[in-house]
Amino acid sequence: MTPSKAAVIGGGVIGAGWVARLIENGVEVAVFDPAPDAHDKLEAVFANAERAYAKLTMAARGGKGEWRLCGTIDEAVAGAQLIIEAVPERLELKRKVYSEIEAAADEGALIASSTSGLLPTDLQAEMAHPARFLVAHPFNPVYLLPLVELVGGEKTASEAIERAKAIFAGMGMHPLHIKKEIDAFVADRLMEAMWREALWLVNDGIASTEEIDDAVRYGFGLRYAQMGIFETFRIAGGEAGMRHFLDQFGPALAWPWTKLMDVPDLNEALVETIASQSDAQSGGHSIRELERIRDDNLIAIMQALKANEWGAGNTLAAYEAKLFDSGAAKSDAVDFSQPVTTLERTVPPDWTDYNNHMNEARYLQCFGDATDAFMRMMGVDADYIATGNSFFTVETHIRHLDEVRVNEPIVALTQLIDAGGKKMHLFHKLFHRDGGLLATGEHLLLHVSLETRSTSEPAAHVAAKLAEVMALHAKLPVPEGIGRAVGQKR
Amino acid sequence: MTPSKAAVIGGGVIGAGWVARLIENGVEVAVFDPAPDAHDKLEAVFANAERAYAKLTMAARGGKGEWRLCGTIDEAVAGAQLIIEAVPERLELKRKVYSEIEAAADEGALIASSTSGLLPTDLQAEMAHPARFLVAHPFNPVYLLPLVELVGGEKTASEAIERAKAIFAGMGMHPLHIKKEIDAFVADRLMEAMWREALWLVNDGIASTEEIDDAVRYGFGLRYAQMGIFETFRIAGGEAGMRHFLDQFGPALAWPWTKLMDVPDLNEALVETIASQSDAQSGGHSIRELERIRDDNLIAIMQALKANEWGAGNTLAAYEAKLFDSGAAKSDAVDFSQPVTTLERTVPPDWTDYNNHMNEARYLQCFGDATDAFMRMMGVDADYIATGNSFFTVETHIRHLDEVRVNEPIVALTQLIDAGGKKMHLFHKLFHRDGGLLATGEHLLLHVSLETRSTSEPAAHVAAKLAEVMALHAKLPVPEGIGRAVGQKR
């Protein structure tokens, strides 16, 4: 589903975010942006995205796509299967860009506008081939937030919407097809409403920008990260459901609705109030710092929801499953005459403790993940586990040899020490990518039936693969540090 | 700061949530609610709260306060230092309740209304002692969400606001003082604005309730769990800041503002549309299930933000620190003639893996936490670590003897095997609370200087405490399974 070549027209925060997501998914991207500092601005977004992707998932990342800046729209769109427009929000400018795109693009290319408010019917009005045009409205940071609103115009083909859905879902996003055109679509409509109200609150001196933000993030903002407006209110209605909620709270809600419906005037005094309150609130962090704090929080929230199999966590899990699958496909090409690479990642910030280094439990998490990766190479993958079979660890020995800190790159190599019958005996070495040995992990696992929770024989193909690797690893030197008890003299 | 006795008038979802948070914090609570099913409804909320608190923090929970239902307001408020009113949103009803409260309450008692919209000046107008009255507006689920809006009326004493701040902060909340009275305060104003817009979107057939909810929770809802409206937009403005954002986006934002300012009529047709769409969206889960999904997600999000030292995570961390402190205070009374209890918790849902049991890495997390708890008993606490000293684990051996599943209660007992000079050799046993041995952990730690990252001698008071416990634990039997290498025959 993922295109091999894409073009992005416009390299601002949104355009650059698109490029970052595309190259992370192996797509070759040509970018057009006439600004003299376009290259630097793109690189700044890519640096944030690289930092975020390094933490986003435990799965090995795929190979990155190449990107290049082009001098013209012609050059950028040539041969692209997906063309994303992210230029300023002026109808005439966008129409002019589409005419240049159509002059050079393949007829089958999908053309998507990132507009946050203009109607696709208006945007596509002058196009020669408007059927392949749609709005794909993403949210900042585009390289992390899953939502993309897809909106077709009167002339958009439903095939184009379906193709876009598949492409964006394949890149870890949650495409939401908005079936009726409306200014600002859905998400921005909701945000605008809140923004309008927030401006009144500042304008009338009810609360400062910081107080308003705190009213969001310590309260309903936590709810909205996982359930939306209606599901949250449904709970408020109790077992009697949504109708009961509307009956009960409808009249009370109607009461504040009747006030403050006018638009606050964004005059110099209000701008000054907001700007100075915002400085007082957030001025202690640079924008770059705020971006990284935001990204770390978004990753942590999505990972938390993944553990709970909910909402944006499910989107991340689906993306991760795809990465695991492509990793598994690659394992056919693994050289088993040497210890095999079973983990490659960086140390995320929440893995550290009060000693300011990776917490001891995370070493076992690394070794456990390395064991899982090795098991997948042996055919003990999700399909096999679904048949009711698995390996359980029964004994573990770890030597913590050196410290490692946040964002450092780490690698695990795994050697099979013994295999046969129900047993699998593994020895992992965890290295800093610079080469320093950080820890060793020695593990005895037994094959079990997940139904009886007792030991059992592995399936023939698993036993055969283990025997094949055992024959090769038997020729490797016995690792230093194996067979130790805690505190034993060397 | 935490009161010893409180009264809650009204046992609905909000009142019951208050009671749950109060008893969790050791407060004795008297409840008045005339409904015949009040007891059952309260118990249902307590069951959710108990389940949530069991997962909320790694710290040992304090002793629970008692609660009881009273037949009259008189009886409920007698002797209470804090009186929370959570009756339906009718001004006359609330005023009548306050007059009954004042007839029986201590003059020094704080009286707080949970109203989500009525003005404190109106509420307190007929009170004999209005200075101790304020609005304390919490958010559902009250036992989990940190935000509580504090709003004083014209006659409210600033001392009452300060007292309320200290009480609610002490119970793990984030009190936000709204300095100017306004209908619906701040958070509900913002939510109302979104709700109004969401009703229009359903009314006009733009999107279903599920599509609207997805537009929230896959996109900006993830942002609002950690930063609010202004800080998020500040980032959008780039290094040029908020003023630039307002200059750049002000005009574009003004455009949709000019539309759809009317109030949608919540007529039978719209109610029916919303109710049936909501059934289609969420009807697969009962309200009880949705509540628990929501609670698990809120806990996971707050824990994730705690790891990032941000927002609601900081509120949780402060609460946890208080629990750790009271745990440490109790350690003076520990009986060191036996292995000591160093961990008591339940297995949270995100600790399980594809084998549907606690993941192997979490065993080491339990042992690591048990080691930390033991170290605190030896004087290696946050203050000691702040002096640049700590212990690092250098070697670990784990026997995984039995499985354990989500929500099961687990306990660790710790025996000191060897201590002296820089060394500390520990043996932990992890039990199911029912008594079954789940795992053993054997650990060698060395005392280090956090400055040089090299081994060093512990401070005299730590060495002395270790020696004292060593003398006692030397008399205990040598634990079975100590000194093993992986795969060694018994």
Q: What is the count of helical runs of chain A?
A: 16
Major sheet details of chain A: 8 strands, mixed
CATH class assignment of the largest domain in chain A: Alpha Beta
Please report which band the strand proportion of chain A falls in: under 5%, 5-15%, 15-25%, 25-35%, 35-45% or over 45%: 15-25%
Instruction: Give the N-terminus to C-terminus distance of chain A in angstroms.
Output: 55 Å
Instruction: Please estimate the helix content of chain A.
Output: 40-55%
SSE ordering of chain A: EHEHEHEHEHEEHEHHHHHHHEHHEEEEH
CATH fold call of the largest domain in chain A: Rossmann fold
Helix- and strand-based class of chain A? alpha/beta
Oligomer: homodimer
* Sheet with the most strands: spatial strand order of chain A: 3-2-1-4-5-6-7-8
The CATH fourth-level homologous superfamily of the largest domain in chain A: NAD(P)-binding Rossmann-like Domain
| DSSP, total strands of chain A | 13
Overall spatial form of chain A: globular
| Mean pLDDT over the residues of chain A | 89
Chain pair with largest interface: A-B, 156 and 156 residues
Overall number of structural domains of chain A? 3
Low-confidence stretches of chain A: none
By CATH, the architecture of the largest domain in chain A is named: 3-Layer(aba) Sandwich
Structural overview:
2 copies of one chain form a homodimer. Chain A is an alpha/beta fold and 490 residues long. The longest helix of chain A is centred in the middle third of the chain and has 21 residues, at 287-307. Chain A is built from 16 helices and 13 strands. The first copy, chain A, has 3 domains: 5-185, Rossmann fold; 188-284, N-(1-d-carboxylethyl)-l-norvaline Dehydrogenase, domain 2 (Orthogonal Bundle), CATH 1.10.1040.10; 334-473, Thiol Ester Dehydrase, Chain A, CATH 3.10.129.10. The first copy, chain A, has helices spanning 13-24, 38-56, 73-77, 91-104, 120-123, 158-170, 187-203, 209-224, 229-236, 241-257, 268-282, 287-307, 311-330, 360-377, 382-386, 460-473, and strands at residues 5-9, 28-32, 67-70, 82-85, 110-113, 133-138, 147-151, 174-177, 340-346, 389-400, 409-420, 423-432, 437-449.
